[in-house]
Amino acid sequence: MSKKAIVIDGNSLIYRVFYATYQQLDYYKKNNLPPANAIRLVASIVLKLLNENQYDYALFALDSHKKTFRTEQFEDYKAGRKPMPEELLSQLEDIKNIVSAIGLNIEAIPGIEADDIIGSYCKIMNDSDVDVTIFTSDRDMLQLVSPKTSVSFFVKGISVRDLYTEQNFCEKFMGLKPCQIPDFKGISGDSSDNLTGVKGIGPKTAVSLLQKYGSLDDIYNHINELNETQAKKFNECKDHAKLCKSLATIRLDVLNNRSINEFLTKNFNVDEFEKIITYYKLDSLRNLLK
User: What range(s) does the 5'-3' exonuclease domain occupy (predicted)?
Assistant: First the structure.
């Protein structure tokens, strides 16, 4: 039986649970308590995921909140995103502490996004014949789907998830393959990352062209076959479209100097777990322990 690995897109999960429980902040303010809404729900979800399956390797990947190589290539990358709210920032360290106590390895690398850590982790695992499940609400992760990697996508709240595998991917994602996701974003853009792609070309046309030609490069190789309006739009945005594709491509090499054994699931740290839940009065989390 193949070994199994879990990787949680930490930033995606943290923001999702924080805003899902945002109204709880009033309770903490009224009672003069430090906010713990995100700590409680992140810990709860991680415990539930580990109760569903046993994983040999486990990772919780985070952004470093420092300038990344993508921002250096494109100054407006992710421009307009608001900074992390203070009420969430104050919880971040103990989110990491409690997730680590539960048994996951925490990884954040200055200048590197969590996406690239996740992609590189998947490569390490896949190269060693380990099956990986990624938990995220970021569609960028879908390009990592492979014979050994699946993506469990948070759809509604936290409990409803949609599983993307190599077998069902084309059916679920408009007939495209995982490797075409960066091409798709290079053409249709991605507003969440402030990538405009080819202006005037929407998702439906992008899918149609990729189904016919396979990649952004091959669309340009057959530019004379496009209608006059499409060809004009692609030619006007050629450099930017290729930049958008590059920026949307997840790196697989940022953990090349790491051993797979560094990501083995850790033993549960009872003392650290108890210290955190006692301080924040999160006693209900004990009910999730097996």
Answer: 3-266
